[in-house]
Amino acid sequence: MEIPDEITQFIDWLEALPTLGKIGFCVGTSLIFLAIIKYFLFKKLSDFVNDTEIGWDNDLYSALEPRSMLFILVICFNVSLAWLSPEFLDSIFPFINSFFILIFTSMLSSSIKVVTPPLMTWLKSDNQGVSVTGGNHFISIFARMIVWFVGIYSILIGLEIEMAGIAASFALFSLIIGLSLQHTIGNILNSFMLAMDSPFDVGDRIEVDGTEGRVVSTGILSTKILTNSEELVVIPNNTLVQNKIRNMARGGGDGQPRRINLLIDVGVSYGEEPPHVKQVLVDVAKECPYTVDNPSPRVLMNDLGEYSIVFRIFAWIDNYADQWPARDWILQRVFERFDEEGIEIPFPTSVELSKSPSNRSEASKKRKRASQKKARVQMSKDEDFYLEERDSLKSGVENLEKKLADTSLSSKDKDRIRDELTSMSTTLDRFDSED
């Protein structure tokens, strides 16, 4: 293939330029090339990233764009030297190659930093009853450390630096540091163990070794917890690994990790009728603005105590942070309703009262008897409905299990049946746990 005369003449003209002219041509050409890359290629890529609905791609573009421009600039410098002075390029090529590796390592490290949190969230998004508020940064740090170790090692190999002496010195230095910082190194290693197991995340309310609070930050050496009394407690990672952790933000069922079951015990006098007490407590639990309708609140007799019959309120709230306001609201309302309904909260027998709390008027006693009768009827209906609903769920679970045994079903149909079976079994387990 013949080269056109115009191109040949242009090449000859370039070769005839003085050294300063060649340098000026290289600089000008490089600037034009960089401008084309930045204002045409990267501009279109930036517009595309801004139009997407996901947010992490913007952070990834912001991290890679300047490093990519630097990478292209070094390529222009390399090409220019290959034309201006090939001998000089050969002498400094290991350093230029090391610079390429350094930039590429930085790009890869930045990509890991941006991509790891959404990737960890996506990997754990199918967990039912467990909420992950974000990717754990320990995994990102560990991966970036490996990338930088490989990058620096490649640079040292490219520069033909003797590794044996460095490795021996590093081994001796590591031994000294390891012996003097055993506890600190243990905290660091345990931080990675916590990252892999992920028993909690920032924002979760946990209890460790008798200390309860909200996790405000996690670090290489320790985890910081803000208690309910606004005290900042720093817990070493060794302590977290060695002790039992109770996480209030991970226990909710039905895919609602922050939901909790609020349990409140209320004692009444032995002279009260259980259906009447149950009906009042159920009404109070349903009236509470913090409780949810599904699962609906329930009341069960829990104990025959020394001084009282103890009933337990089972009420679910969407957010464990509302536990104490909900408890306060229910207890205050129970006190008011008991007074209206004439239900007595017993005193210990060792307490001598100047006036019996049961001295009520005849009209008040009649109203109480009417309320008791109404409550017995209502509680009987509720109990019948409860049993019918549970029996219906059991029958549904049995039917789904029979369908699942059919070998002619497709994989899609089996997956759909399994999802229905899981949902119904979860609801049935809740019924059985309330008995």
Describe this structure in words.
It contains 12 helices and 8 strands. The chain is 63% helix and 12% strand. The longest helix has 43 residues, at 362-404. Strands 4-3-2-1-5 form a 5-stranded antiparallel beta sheet. A 3-stranded antiparallel beta sheet has the order 6-8-7, covered by helices on one side. The chain has 3 domains: 11-161, no CATH class; 178-247, SH3 type barrels (Roll), CATH 2.30.30.60; 260-434, Alpha-Beta Plaits (2-Layer Sandwich), CATH 3.30.70.100. The radius of gyration is 36 Å and the shape is elongated. It is α+β, with helices and mostly antiparallel strands. Mean pLDDT is 77; it is low at 127-136. The protein has helices at 5-16, 19-51, 56-84, 86-123, 137-158, 163-180, 182-197, 237-242, 274-287, 323-341, 362-404, 411-434, and strands at residues 205-208, 211-218, 222-227, 232-236, 245-247, 260-268, 298-304, 309-317. Helix 2 (19-51) packs antiparallel against helix 3.
In short:
This protein is of the alpha+beta class and 435 residues long. It is built from twelve helices and eight strands.
Q: What would the keywords be for this entry?
A:
12% strand; 12 helices; 435 residues; SH3 type barrels; alpha+beta; Alpha-Beta Plaits
